[in-house]
Amino acid sequence: MAGWASVGDPTQFVAIAFGAGDFRARTEDRPPPPSLSPGDRVSLGPLVAVVEWCLNHPRLFRLRFLGDRATILRGLARHGHPIQYAHVREPLALWDVWTRIAADPIAFEPPSAGFALDWRTLEAWRERGVGFATLTHAAGISSIGDPTLDRQFPFDEPYIISERTGALIGQAQSKNGRSVAIGTTVVRALESAANADGSVGAGEGVASGRITRETRLQVVDTILTGVHEPGGSHFQLLRAFADDTVLQQVSAALKKHHYHTHEFGDFMLIERQFRS
Questions:
Q1: Alpha-carbon distance 207 to 263, whole Å?
Q2: Which of 218, 267, 268, 211 is nearest to 240 (CA)?
Q3: Are 182 and 122 contacting, i.e. CB atoms less than 8 angstroms apart?
Q4: How many CB atoms are located within 10 Å of the residue 192 CB?
């Protein structure tokens, strides 16, 4: 598994390595990868990547692909595979994990809340006066089943926010409107880009750190998100929107009625509870 370390540099990746096996085996059941050291080379079809340094876990390292942007993108599209969970039984093709409103190929795990949207939905929103704006973000991984590594999630996630998106959020705020984030990664990006007055700065940045129960959200009022299991970093982010009692009730109801988690699962809308 790998994701870009920077939106602006397509050669740099943070990667998680596994031993033998495929997506049909749970990642927590996969053996350790071969030992990797700085300077080692990893191949993906014709692409070659150099391990730059190993991070603070045997599975975790940073690498750099050799070549220009076009060559790397073509190689990844042809020889790479989407990140896939074992609950989806058939192998996924690259286009299976593109949301219907996707543009630049930046995220290596699909920003799954976007699967709830299509162009008909956006048209219906426009007819009701609901604004819609986009940002570019490198959606990251929330869990691989390794408790030690899972405690480090979510990793830093690069993003780009346009001036138009920042302006539209500002217009909504000036009219006492609500800002609805489509997915947890969008929440991280917007809150990372927030200024002291709650406005959103345009430009490129990196969302770092966790959003938890203690986080005071400055921009996002409501989140449309997938169904997340308690304990994961994405579920922890939901604690900034609702208290634990509410989330426990929601989790119990979702389990009782057999809602699906992870990618290609179900969705829920949570409006932030304002605190005194």
A1: 22
A2: 211
A3: no
A4: 20
Tokens of 264: 């290609």
Bridge partners, 43 (sequence order)? 48
Amino acid sitting at position 143: S
What are the tens digits of pLDDT across the range 80-98?
A: 888 887 777 888 888 888 8
d(CA 270, CA 225): 8
**CA dist., res. 161 & res. 100, Å (int):** 20
Rg of the chain taking only CA atoms, in angstroms: 19
Predicted TM-score (pTM) of the model is 0.85
Dist. CA 41–CA 107, nearest whole Å = 24
Q: Is 70 helix (H, G, I), strand (E, B) or coil?
A: helix
Reported as type and span, the H/E element at residue 52 is: strand 47-54
What type of residue is 44?
L
Question: Strand 47-54 relative to strand 2-4: parallel, antiparallel, unpaired?
Answer: unpaired
pLDDT digits (tens, 9 = 90+) for 33-86: 888 899 999 999 999 999 998 888 888 889 999 999 889 988 988 888 888 877
Domains in the chain, ordered, with CATH?
Answer: 1-80 (no CATH), 101-276 (3.40.1780.10)
